């Protein structure tokens, strides 16, 4: 390789490195996700639907909750969340506009401070980041 092309090659390599680093640091986690959320889809709490944010505030405040089953043990029978002993997870209804009953949306909390959101009745979850 001639000396004349070295600056171009070096420039191209630096550009590729910059693109690679920028691509690795992007995402909606605002930084590195906590260990319990790694490998999962995530959502920032302020990006949840308004009804989910309202439910999250109720959880933080300890209630009151509008649905009888709010705060009940979540069994994790679908095995979409990490396996834990029974009683580790609790579920809370997120009102779904247009639904007469509880609808498909839930927040599930873990005893270790984890929060998960589902809008498809436990078929999938996103880790909620604060």
Automatic annotation (TrEMBL):
Q: Signal peptide position in this chain? A: 1-27
Q: Which UniProt keywords apply?
A: Hydrolase, Nuclease, Signal
Q: Supply the name of the protein.
A: Ribonuclease domain-containing protein
Domain of life from the UniProt record? Bacteria
**What InterPro entries does its record include?**
N1-like, Ribonuclease/ribotoxin
**Which species does the entry assign this protein to?**
Streptomyces huasconensis
Q: Which Pfam families match?
A: Ribonuclease (PF00545)
Please give the PROSITE patterns that the UniProt record associates with this protein. PROKAR_LIPOPROTEIN
């Amino acid at each position: 390789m001639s000396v004349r092309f070295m600056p171009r090659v070096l420039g191209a390599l630096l550009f590729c490195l910059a693109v690679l680093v920028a691509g690795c640091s992007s995402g909606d986690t605002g930084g590195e996700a906590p260990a319990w959320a790694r490998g999962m889809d995530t959502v920032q709490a302020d990006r949840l639907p308004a009804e989910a944010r309202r439910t999250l505030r109720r959880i933080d405040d300890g209630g009151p909750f509008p649905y009888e089953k709010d705060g009940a043990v979540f069994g994790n029978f679908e095995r979409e969340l990490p396996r834990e002993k029974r009683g580790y997870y609790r579920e809370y209804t997120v009102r779904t506009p247009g639904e007469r009953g509880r609808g498909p949306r839930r927040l599930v909390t873990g005893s270790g401070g984890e929060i998960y959101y589902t809008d498809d009745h436990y078929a999938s979850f996103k880790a909620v980041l604060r």
